[in-house]
Write a structure and sequence with these properties.
By secondary structure, the protein is of the alpha/beta class. It has a domain of 234 residues: NAD(P)-binding Rossmann-like Domain (Rossmann fold), CATH 3.40.50.720. The strands form 4 sheets. Strands 3-2-1-4-5-6-11 form a 7-stranded parallel beta sheet, sandwiched between helices. Strands 7-10 form a two-stranded parallel ribbon. Strands 8-13 form a two-stranded parallel ribbon. Strand 1, helix 1 and strand 2 form a beta-alpha-beta unit. The longest helix has 23 residues. The structure holds nicotinamide-adenine-dinucleotide (NAD) and thymidine-5'-diphosphate (TYD).
C-alpha cells in the first residue's frame, strides 16, 4: 500500500486530487494531507472523506521544518505531491513576500525533509520514492497572440511575483534532481477550473457575481488568452506522472483549450441563462450588461498555451472533459453548493473584494 503525503490538499486542486485518488484507488492507498489552512484552504472541501481510515489530516505549515520532518519520521512516505502554495497572481502583486516565503522557502523545507527521509548512507535514494512538484505554465512567461506554445524546453521567463516564486521553486527541484539525483518530477499545468475553486479566480468569480446580478470585472481589453483544463484531468495527469513518469523529467499538462477571457465570460453568461429555470428569479439578473471592463492587471501576461505532446506520447495522458461539458459540470456544482460559496465569501473575502475591485 502506497502512502501519499499531499501538501495543500484543502485547496482547490489538492482537494480535487484527493477525491480523484480515493475514487480510483479506494482503500488501496493512504493519504496524509498537510495544510496550514490559509484563506484558500477549506476542510469543507474534504468533508465526505475525512472519516476514512486511510486518510489523515495534519494542520501544519510547510515552512515549519520540525512539523514536516516529524511527518516523515512517523510515516513511511512513498510519494510527496506538493500543491501547497500561494496561488493568486493579483494577491502576489499586492503582497509578494508571502509568495516567496511559502512557495520558495516552503518548497525548500519539503525537499530537504523528503531528502533526509529517503536518502541512504551511500547517497542514493530508497527505491520507489518520488516527489511530484505541482507547478504552472506561468513560469514560461507570455506568448504572442496566436503564435507558439510552451514546451518543456521553453526557457523560464516569469513576470508576476507569483510566477517568479513558482519558477524559483521549480529551479530548486531541478537543482535537487541535478545535484543529488533526488527522485522527482515537475508538472507545469495550464489554468484549471472546476468544483471547489475559490472565487478570487476568474471562472468562479464570474459565476458568483452573475448569479447575484453583480458587475463582471474584465481586465484590460478582455483578450488575454488562457488554456483551460478541467481539474479532474489535471488530477489524472498527476496520478499518471507519479506512476509512469520517468524520474527527473518535466511534463507540461494542458488540453489545447485556449480562450480569451471575454469568451469565457460570455460562455458563462450563456450557460447560466440556459441552465437556470424560467421560474428562478436569478435568471433575470444574468445578462451581458453586467460585463464591465476595468483597469488592466499590472504586467498582465497576454497568452498562455501548453504543448502537451510529451505527456501524451510518453505517458498516454489525454484530457477527457471538453470545455463545453466541464463548464456545465462546474456551474452545476456551484448551483448545488450555494452554502459553500456563502461560507467562503463571508468574512475576509468581502474585504479582499472591496480592496481589489471598485465595480
Ligand atoms: P489554492 O490557493 O486553492 O490552494 C492552496 C492550498 O495550499 C490551500 O489549501 C492553502 O491552505 C495551502 N497552503 C498555503 N500555504 C501553505 C503553507 N505555508 N503550508 C501548508 N499549506 C499551505 O491553490 P490551487 O489552485 O489548488 O493550486 C495548487 C497548486 O497548483 C499550486 O502550487 C499552484 O501553483 C499550482 N497550479 C495551479 C493552477 C490553477 O489554475 N489553479 C494551475 C497550475 C498549477
Ligand atoms: P486568474 O483566474 O486569476 O488566473 P491567472 O491569472 O493565474 O491566469 O485569471 C485568469 C484571467 O482572467 C487573467 O487573464 C486575468 C483575468 N481576470 C479578469 O479579467 N477579471 C477578474 O476578475 C479576474 C480574477 C481575472
Amino acid at each position: 500500500m502506497k502512502t501519499y503525503l499531499v501538501t495543500g490538499g484543502a485547496g482547490f486542486i489538492g482537494s480535487n486530487f484527493i477525491h480523484y485518488m480515493f475514487d480510483k484507488y479506494g482503500n488501496d492507498i493512504r493519504i496524509i494531507n498537510v495544510d496550514v489552512l490559509t484563506y484558500a484552504g477549506n476542510l469543507e472541501n474534504l468533508k465526505d472523506i475525512e472519516k476514512r481510515d486511510n486518510y489523515t489530516f495534519v494542520k501544519a505549515d510547510i515552512c515549519d521544518k520540525e512539523a514536516i520532518s516529524r511527518i516523515f519520521a512517523e510515516n513511511d512516505i512513498d510519494y510527496v505531491v506538493h500543491f501547497a502554495a500561494e496561488s493568486h497572481v493579483d494577491r502576489s502583486i499586492k503582497t509578494p513576500e508571502v509568495f516567496v516565503q511559502t512557495n520558495v522557502l516552503g518548497t525548500a523545507v519539503m525537499l530537504n525533509s523528503a531528502k533526509a527521509a529517503w536518502e541512504k548512507e551511500d547517497g542514493t535514494f530508497k527505491e520507489g520514492k518520488k516527489f511530484l512538484h505541482v507547478s504552472t505554465d506561468e513560469v514560461y512567461g507570455s506568448l504572442p497572440e496566436g503564435d507558439g506554445y510552451f514546451y518543456e524546453t521553453t526557457p523560464y521567463a516569469p513576470h508576476s511575483p507569483y510566477s517568479a516564486s513558482k519558477a524559483s521553486s521549480d529551479m530548486l527541484v531541478k537543482a535537487y534532481m541535478d545535484t543529488y539525483k533526488f527522485p522527482a518530477n515537475i508538472t507545469n499545468c495550464s489554468n484549471n477550473y472546476g468544483p471547489y475553486q475559490f472565487p478570487e479566480k476568474l471562472i468562479p468569480l464570474i459565476i458568483n457575481n452573475a448569479l447575484q446580478g453583480k458587475k463582471l470585472p474584465v481586465y484590460g481589453d478582455g483578450k488575454n488568452v488562457r488554456d483551460w483544463l478541467y481539474v479532474a484531468d489535471h488530477a489524472k495527469a498527476i496520478d499518471m506522472v507519479i506512476t509512469r513518469g520517468r524520474l527527473f523529467e518535466t511534463y507540461n499538462v494542458g488540453g489545447h483549450n485556449e480562450k480569451q477571457n471575454i469568451e469565457i465570460v460570455n460562455i458563462i453568461i450563456e450557460t447560466l441563462q440556459e441552465m437556470l429555470d424560467d421560474s428562478d428569479p436569478r435568471k433575470a439578473l444574468v445578462t451581458k450588461d453586467l460585463i464591465t471592463y476595468v483597469e488592466d492587471r499590472k504586467g498582465h501576461d497576454r497568452r498562455y498555451a501548453i504543448a502537451p505532446d510529451k505527456i501524451r506520447s510518453e505517458i498516454g495522458w489525454e484530457p477527457e472533459t471538453m470545455f463545453k461539458d466541464g463548464i456545465k459540470l462546474t456551474i452545476k456544482w456551484y448551483f448545488e453548493h450555494e452554502d459553500w460559496m456563502k461560507n467562503v465569501t463571508s468574512g475576509d473575502y468581502q474585504k479582499y473584494y472591496n480592496e481589489m475591485y471598485t465595480v
